[in-house]
Amino acid sequence: MRSTPALALPSAPSGWFDYRYFLLSAGELAILRTDRDLVAEYDAWQKTAQSEACNAPMPDIRTAKALLSTFNEAGEGSSIEIPLVRHPVVDRLPDGRWILASARAEKDEQNGLILFPDGKISRSLFWVMQ
Q1: In 3D, which of 114, 93, 121, 99 has the Cα closest to residue 26?
Q2: Residue 60 belongs to a domain
């Protein structure tokens, strides 16, 4: 097995925060960034909830803006703006479209999107409980 040198991840643009990383089926890395530090917001909420009786709602990630880009040995590709879902899972389809799914959808909640390569919505997917 041939090893490849490690590549440093690119820094997030000013005002953006790395939120999640996804290994795509084609071998590239997808980087999901948000305009708020959602990881820090959730950590702060979780510490408060564990230390006292807390009725504060979890941070609402759906109000954040999100950028999605790819990264490989050639560098980072251009970013597209996408909608954000709870507990996102991302992959790219062979035709260049994106699939964006929520790993923890509620009954009758939109839990997935097919996006055109530019980030516009092609179709919505729903989990329906029988």
Answers
A1: 93
A2: yes
Report the distance separating Cα 70 and Cα 82, nearest Å.
Answer: 13
Could you read off the pLDDT of 88-128 as tens digits, one per residue? 999 999 999 999 998 876 666 678 899 999 999 999 887 66
Residue 7 lies in a domain: no
83 closest CA partner among 65, 70, 97: 65
Are residues 69 and 28 in contact, defined by beta-carbon separation less than 8 angstroms?
A: no
List the structure tokens of 53: 């009786």
**What would the two tokens of residue 109 be?**
């909640």
Structural domain containing residue 67: 17-126
Whether 1 is covered by a domain: the verdict is no
Q: Domain tally for the chain?
A: 1
What does each C-alpha distance from 126 to 18, 42, 63, 72, 109 come to in angstroms?
27, 26, 20, 32, 6
Contact of 8 with 18, CB cutoff 8 Å: no
